[in-house]
Design a protein that fits this description.
about 525 residues, alpha/beta, elongated
Length: about 525
C-alpha cells in the first residue's frame, strides 16, 4: 500500500487516516471482492449510498480520486509528468479530482477536456471548479497529446457506454494507444462495454484500471481483460447495506478457497480422499492421462487409477509410480476398475477410434460422479444425453459442437453458452477460456479472474480435468469441485508462469498445485 505520507494534507483532511488504512485499501488481484455486478447494479449501489445512507456524491468522487492517486503513485512511482484526458459525467469528475491531487503532490499535470467543461453538471462540475480554484488549467482537445507525458489518465467515458466510440473521443483513444506513456484508466477503459466487455469500436489499452463501488462484469469478459491491464478495486467505504442487489457473477476469493480446502485431520488416511479412475489415453496419446492423473494426486486425491491403451500402460507406471495404470483391451476390462472407483475422469487423450467408442458406450450410462473432457465431449456431441452427476469442461470449439453453434457464436455470449450447456446436458458446465465460466443452472454463475495467456498451451485442459476430479473425490459437490478446481488451476498457472508467460508448460503447474490447495 502507498504510505499515508505520500498524500497531500488536503487529502488527509478529507478522509479519516485510520479508515484509509482499512476500508480504502488498494487490492491486488487475489484480494478483489467475490461479487461481480452489472453496471445497473453498481449504479443502484451508488444511488443507495447517496440517497439512503446519506454519503454525499462528491465525497464518493473524492474518495475515488484519493484511491486512484494512491494507485498511480504506487504503480508508477517514476512518472512525474501526467496528462489527464477528461470527457463527460462522473468519470470526468474523477479525472478532475485526480488532477487536483496530483498537482498538490508536486506532479506536473496537464488536463485535456473532450467536451466544453461548462457542460459538466453536479459533482463533476464541483470537481472541475475545485481543480481550477487550486490553480489547474483546462485545455480543449486539439488532436494531440503531450509528447513528454509519462502517465496518461483515461477519464473519458467510464462504464455507461452504450454505443461505439466515435468522433473526437475515438481520435483521443487512438492517440492514447499510440503514445509511449503508461496508461491508467479510471473505472473502466473508454470503449469497453461495462456489462459485456465488448469493444465498442475502439478502446483504450490500459496498463492499470482502478474500478469503484462494485466490480463490473465487463472488466473480465470478452475484450475487457486485453484492455484493462491490472485491475484494482476500491469500495469507497460504502457499507455493505448499500449492495443488496444480486451479483451477475461470483468469483473465488481467498476466504472461499480456505473454507473449501481446510486442513486435514492428523489421523487421515488415503482411503478418506477417494479413488479417481481416469479413462483415456488412446494409442500413441499417453501424455494426457499422465498429466490428468498427476494433477488429481497433486490436489489430494487418495488413489488414482488410469485405464488406458495397452501400448503404454507400463510406461505410465514407470514414469509416475504413484499412478496405477491398467491396460484396457476391450470395454469389459473396465468393470473391475469401475467397482473400486468413486469418481470418473473421462476423455483426456481418448481419441475417436472404435476402442474409444466402446469406452464411451460403457461410461455414458455410469452413475458415478464424473468429469468429461476432450474427446469424451466430441462423442457426447454426437449422442447427446443429460446427466446430473457429470461435469463437462469444454473449450469454445467443443462447446460449439455440443450446442450446434459456431465457435464465434459461443464467444460472442459466453454466459449464454454456459447456461445453454447446462440446459442441454445437465450437471455442471465449465466453459474454458479467458474468463472461464462455471454454471449449474442455479442462481450463481462463477467467473474466474485468475490465469494468464501462457496457459493457452497443450495439456492445460487435461490438468484441469484431473484437478476437478481430484477435488470431487475428496467430498466436494460437483459445483464446488468445478468452481474451486477452475480457480486452483488458474492460480497454479499464474504461480508457475511468474513474470514469464510465454513457454509455460502444462506440467509446470503440477508442483505449483500443491501450494495452492494448502491455503
Amino acid at each position: 500500500r502507498a504510505a499515508i505520507s505520500v498524500l497531500p494534507k488536503s487529502v488527509v483532511d478529507i478522509v479519516n487516516v485510520s479508515s484509509l488504512g482499512s476500508s480504502s485499501i488498494i487490492c491486488s488481484m487475489d484480494e478483489l471482492p467475490a461479487n461481480i455486478y452489472s453496471v445497473a447494479s453498481v449504479r443502484e449501489m451508488d444511488r443507495t449510498a447517496i440517497e439512503d445512507i446519506g454519503i454525499p456524491g462528491y465525497t464518493l468522487m473524492t474518495r475515488a480520486g484519493i484511491a486512484s492517486m494512491q494507485a498511480a503513485l504506487q504503480r508508477f512511482p517514476s512518472a512525474r509528468r501526467w496528462q489527464i484526458v477528461c470527457g463527460s459525467g462522473n468519470n470526468a469528475g474523477d479525472g478532475y479530482v485526480v488532477a487536483r491531487l496530483a498537482r498538490d503532490e508536486g506532479i506536473t499535470v496537464s488536463l485535456i477536456s473532450l467536451i466544453d467543461p461548462d457542460r459538466l453538471g453536479d459533482d463533476a462540475a464541483k470537481a472541475r471548479d475545485d481543480y481550477l480554484a487550486a490553480g489547474g488549467a483546462i485545455k480543449r482537445w486539439q488532436g494531440e497529446l503531450d509528447n513528454e507525458a509519462e502517465l496518461l489518465v483515461d477519464a473519458m467515458l467510464g462504464s455507461g457506454l452504450e454505443r461505439d466510440v466515435g468522433g473526437e473521443f475515438a481520435d483521443a483513444v487512438a492517440a492514447i494507444n499510440a503514445h509511449p506513456a503508461q496508461v491508467f484508466a479510471l473505472d473502466i477503459p473508454t470503449g469497453i462495454h461495462g456489462d459485456t466487455g465488448k469493444l465498442m469500436g475502439i478502446g483504450v489499452e490500459a496498463d492499470l484500471t482502478m474500478t469503484f463501488v462494485g466490480l463490473k462484469s465487463g472488466l473480465f469478459l470478452r475484450d475487457g481483460p486485453d484492455h484493462c491491464g491490472e485491475v484494482l478495486f476500491d469500495g469507497l467505504q460504502i457499507p455493505e447495506a448499500a449492495s443488496p442487489v444480486p451479483p451477475a457473477f461470483r468469483r473465488v476469493d481467498d476466504a472461499l478457497l480456505r473454507k473449501a480446502l481446510p486442513r486435514r485431520r492428523r489421523a487421515a488416511h488415503k482411503g478418506d480422499f477417494g479413488h479417481v479412475l481416469i479413462v483415456g489415453g488412446g494409442a500413441g496419446m499417453p501424455g494426457a492421462v499422465r498429466l490428468c492423473g498427476e494433477a488429481a494426486l497433486r490436489v489430494g486425491a487418495g488413489l488414482v487409477s488410469i485405464a488406458t491403451d495397452p501400448s503404454h500402460a507400463a510406461l505410465l507406471t514407470a514414469t509416475r509410480p504413484e499412478l496405477m495404470s491398467h491396460a484396457i483391451r476391450q470395454p469389459a476390462d473396465l468393470d473391475p476398475l469401475l467397482d473400486r472407483a468413486d469418481v470418473i475422469a473421462f476423455g483426456p487423450g481418448l481419441g475417436q477410434t472404435e476402442w474409444a467408442r466402446g469406452l464411451f458406450d460403457v461410461l455414458s450410462g455410469d452413475s458415478r460422479p464424473a468429469v468429461w473432457d476432450a474427446d469424451a465431449l466430441n462423442w457426447l456431441a454426437r449422442q447427446p444425453a443429460t446427466s446430473d452427476n457429470r461435469i463437462i469442461t469444454p473449450h469454445p470449439g467443443e462447446a460449439a459442437r455440443l450446442l450446434d453453434k459456431t465457435t464465434a457464436d459461443v464467444q460472442l455470449d459466453r454466459p449464454d453458452a454456459a447456461a445453454a450447456l447446462v440446459e442441454r446436458y445437465g450437471g455442471v458446465a465449465v466453459l474454458k477460456g479467458a474468463g472461464t465460466l462455471v454454471a449449474d443452472g442455479g442462481d450463481d454463475t462463477w467467473l474466474c479472474t485468475s490465469g494468464n495467456p501462457g496457459m493457452a498451451a497443450p495439456g492445460m485442459g487435461d490438468v484441469l480435468t484431473g484437478v476437478i476430479a481430484g477435488l470431487l473425490s475428496q467430498g466436494l459437490t460437483a459445483q464446488q469441485a468445478a468452481v474451486i478446481g477452475v480457480e486452483v488451476h488458474a492460480r497454479a498457472g499464474d504461480r508457475a508462469a511468474g513474470s514469464a508467460e510465454r513457454g509455460l508448460l502444462a506440467s509446470d503447474l503440477l508442483v505449483a498445485l500443491r501450494d495452492i490447495v494448502n491455503p
